[in-house]
Automatic annotation (TrEMBL):
Organism in which the protein naturally occurs: Aspergillus fumigatus (strain ATCC MYA-4609 / CBS 101355 / FGSC A1100 / Af293)
Record domain Glycoside hydrolase family: where: 86-146, 233-409
Transmembrane parts of this sequence: none
Descriptive protein name: Endoglycoceramidase, putative
Enzyme Commission number: 3.2.1.123
Length: 519
């Protein structure tokens, strides 16, 4: 594996002496015996945290990579100003200290003709997933959408198929819509009514024409248009088998990834709208849509996933306007195999990031599952926005919540191709990627560069606690203080990771604290 080079590993001296029962070669031997990434397919329903195959609690810092237009995947070649996802990109993310990518797998790209999957597209996505694995990055497979379809100035579901004209005629190729149909709503209610009194003119594919019209409507408000509400309602109600088609696509994705080590989960659908709120206004009450319409579709998809993959975690989202989740249960009722995926933007969230994280904690406890912040504002902005990002970093540490920023392309200055330092410093935080026990608290002070971790050890876990310490944040190295003395062996398997092996002489649980500060 490129991200773990045992021959280049460096051994740190342990404070005074090696812990009783631990030798330097034990640490090196563990990494030789476990050269790849740990499989992650379980949630501890008591701690409400994700755990790996060794029983360690896992935390993630990462970014989103989503292509919202044809060909529906990012190019592999790196170039300034181009939103790519290739080897240079995964090298960049590894150097930043990140360990997860939420990678968009467009349904439109995968199934351009109903019932016929584009294997070339899926193979490209798998190649990008493998590139991430080569550099120690987990992948959250995400079916992404924003305003559902190109007919609504959005993207997500398949839009049109190209079909030949009748044999023996001069007819050209025809565009055939297989998801969104023009006759679903009366002509006067077509997109973007009622945001505008007159529907947009469309081309022969049903897309607004000229495309510049899309810029005249706030995309986030498009969810309240009659046509978008109607289309979501049909998906949730399985009109014309659309819900079944969605579930079948997830079965296809799961069959492609079931043996893939670095896939941490399947994110069923990005930011699902509440459904046909014009037909049923109660869906606009926070929490109602979760149990009334979303839960059924999530179960439908999860059932299909489980026919080919019994282990990979299923990540599910609630409606974006939720305050507290309204789900009666997690998909298929198994909180040990599911993760609540949620976002924080203000608006639609009206409370602070800390209040939102506290609400999600309550959701996790009620649903007996884990939660991960899979989107938050991670782009350049005015002072208040940048302070909000700094506050979010502190809050996620305080609540011990993993996060995935939106989005990778925002990191770079499009002219120079260089990362914005104001963003890179937040991505390059110290954090515990794996904790060999129960984490009690952790924090990273961006001003001093000091990282602190407190956890309760588990003598049954032989794998190390792993702390990510990006070299860009610790250019001159770092010093480590551990209490109690002699409780761990320190080992550096690669340039960005500090491993702490709990002494094998410790037979009972103990509280261990580690402080890392720059030299």
């Amino acid at each position: 594996m490129l991200f773990v080079s045992i021959t280049a590993a460096l051994l740190l001296a342990v404070l005074d002496t090696l812990p009783a029962g631990m030798q330097a070669q034990d640490a090196e031997g563990w990494y030789k015996a476990h050269p790849g990434m740990a499989r992650i397919s379980q949630v501890n329903q008591d701690t409400h945290q994700i755990v790996d195959e060794f029983g360690r609690t896992r935390f993630f810092h990462g970014t989103n990579v989503v292509m919202k237009e044809p060909p529906w995947y990012r190019p592999f070649e790196w170039a300034p100003g181009v939103s790519s996802f290739g080897e240079q990109d995964v090298q960049n993310l590894h150097a930043l200290g990140l360990n997860i990518v939420r990678l968009g797998h467009s349904w439109a790209g995968a199934e351009p003709v109903r019932g016929q999957y584009n294997q070339t597209f899926l193979d490209i996505m798998k190649k990008q997933t493998k590139l991430a694995e080569d550099y120690g990055l987990y992948v959250l497979v995400d079916v992404h959408q924003d305003v559902l379809a190109r007919q609504f100035c959005g993207h997500g579901v398949p839009d049109v198929s190209r079909m030949r004209g009748p044999v023996g005629t001069a007819a050209t190729d025809m565009a055939v819509q297989w998801f969104v149909k023009e006759d679903w709503v009366p002509g006067w209610k077509m997109y973007p009514f009622p945001l505008k009194p007159t529907p947009f003119p469309v081309d022969n594919k049903g897309f607004p024409s000229p495309q510049s019209l899309c810029g005249t409507v706030d995309w986030s408000l498009s969810y309240t248009s009659a046509a978008v509400c109607n289309a979501f309602g049909r998906l949730y109600n399985n009109y014309d088998g659309l819900g079944d088609a969605f579930a079948a696509y997830w079965k296809k994705l799961a069959s492609e990834y079931v043996e893939t080590t670095n896939v941490v989960g399947y994110n069923l659908l990005n930011e699902p709208w509440v459904g046909d709120s014009m037909a049923d206004p109660t869906l606009l009450v926070p929490g109602v849509a979760d149990h009334k319409v979303l839960e059924g579709l999530w179960n439908r998809a999860a059932k299909q996933i489980r026919t080919v993959d019994n282990d990979t975690l299923i990540w599910f989202e609630g409606a974006t306007i939720d305050i507290l989740s309204g789900f009666n249960n997690v998909p298929l009722g198994d909180g040990s195999k599911s993760v609540h995926s949620f976002h924080y933007y203000s608006p639609p969230q009206l409370s602070s990031i800390s209040t939102t994280l506290n609400n999600r904690r309550k959701d996790n406890e009620r649903l007996r599952t884990a939660g991960v912040l899979t989107e938050l504002t991670f782009w350049m902005g005015e002072n208040q926005q940048m302070q909000g990002l700094a506050d979010a970093m502190s809050a996620t540490d305080a609540h011990m919540v993993s996060w995935i920023g939106w989005a990778y392309e925002n990191l770079y200055n499009s002219t120079s191709g260089q990362p914005y330092p104001e963003l890179a410093k937040h991505y390059s935080r110290g954090y515990p990627a794996a904790v060999a026990g129960t984490p009690n608290s952790f924090s990273f002070d961006e001003n001093s560069g000091t990282f602190k971790l407190q956890f309760t050890s588990d003598p049954n876990i032989k794998a190390p606690t792993e702390i990510i310490l990006p070299p860009s944040t610790f250019p001159n190295g770092y010093k480590v203080q551990v209490s109690p003395d002699g409780s761990v062996l320190q080992y550096v398997p690669n340039k960005r990771t500090l491993a702490l092996f709990t002494s094998s002489s410790i037979k009972n649980t103990i509280n261990i604290s580690a402080t890392v500060s720059p030299r």
